[in-house]
């Protein structure tokens, strides 16, 4: 489990095909601290660390992950948000994030607002019921609060620290980001769905 508070960013140094999957090597300030079999969020997608060496760690994304997330579009040199899983005695500074990407969202607007930034995103129409005003959402692994919620669009405000220390600063209109909707909201939606079928 993660919190959506990005710990570090990393740069993709190498990409190799592996059957229907893809192997990524990423250089980051925390790579030397990682261990094999450790779970690590990469732009919101939980991947298993396979090995580390000289400030680089390696992970593999399977076909389903490549298809459902932005990982299939990653290129060498891309900046990736990283977060280690939450320790049992840690603080939940963001919100509960599982590292299971639900879909992608397209950025439709980006603007600076006196030192901070606002972004508008569009999600698949069938997911519109999972966003609420002032609710939580994970975008590229970043825990953010949403507002100006419409049928399938919403906005987020990004403070300077988050803008400077994550890859949200590289997102422009037309680009896609990974989305994980709030887990509590998904459970409520599921309960309502099953209740309506009785």
Description:
This protein is mainly beta and 198 residues long. It folds into 2 domains: 77 residues, Beta Barrel (Elongation Factor Tu (Ef-tu), domain 3); 94 residues, Beta Barrel (Elongation Factor Tu (Ef-tu), domain 3), CATH 2.40.30.20. Helices cover 13% and strands 41% of the residues. It contains 3 helices and 13 strands, in the order ββββββαββββββαβα. The strands form 2 sheets. A 7-stranded antiparallel β-sheet has the order 4-3-7-1-2-6-5. Strands 8-9-12-11-10-13 form a 6-stranded antiparallel barrel. β8 and β9 form a beta hairpin. The chain is globular and about 50 Å long. The protein starts with 7 loop residues before the first strand and ends with a helix.
Poorly predicted parts: none
Write the CATH architecture name of the largest domain: Beta Barrel
Number of helices: 3
| Integer average pLDDT | 95
Class from secondary-structure proportions: mainly beta
Biggest beta-sheet profile? 7 strands, antiparallel
| Approximate shape | globular
Rounded radius of gyration (Å):
17 Å
Number of domains: 2
Briefly note the CATH topology name of the largest domain. Answer: Elongation Factor Tu (Ef-tu), domain 3
Bin the strand percentage: 35-45%
What sequence of helices (H) and strands (E) makes up the elements?
A: EEEEEEHEEEEEEHEH
Write down how many β-strands occur, each being a DSSP E stretch of 2 or more residues: 13
Strand order of the largest sheet: 4-3-7-1-2-6-5
């Amino acid at each position: 489990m993660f919190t959506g508070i990005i710990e570090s960013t990393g740069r993709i140094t190498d990409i190799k095909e592996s059957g229907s999957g893809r192997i990524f090597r990423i250089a980051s300030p925390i790579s030397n601290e990682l261990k094999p079999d450790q779970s690590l969020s990469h732009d919101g997608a939980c991947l298993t660390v396979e090995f580390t060496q000289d400030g680089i760690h390696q992970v593999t994304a399977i076909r389903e992950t490549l298809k459902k997330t932005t990982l299939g579009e990653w290129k060498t040199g891309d900046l990736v948000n990283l977060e280690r899983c939450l320790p049992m005695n840690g603080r939940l500074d963001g919100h509960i994030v599982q590292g299971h990407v639900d879909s992608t969202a397209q950025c439709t607007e980006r603007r600076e607002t006196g030192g901070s930034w606002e972004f508008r995103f569009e999600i698949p129409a069938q997911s519109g019921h999972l966003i609420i005003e002032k609710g939580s959402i994970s975008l590229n692994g970043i825990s953010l609060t949403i507002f100006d919620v419409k049928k399938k669009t919403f906005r987020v405000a990004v403070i300077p620290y988050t803008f400077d220390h994550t890859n949200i600063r590289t997102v422009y209109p037309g680009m896609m980001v990974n989305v994980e909707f709030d887990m509590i909201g998904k459970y409520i939606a599921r309960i309502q769905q099953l209740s309506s079928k009785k």
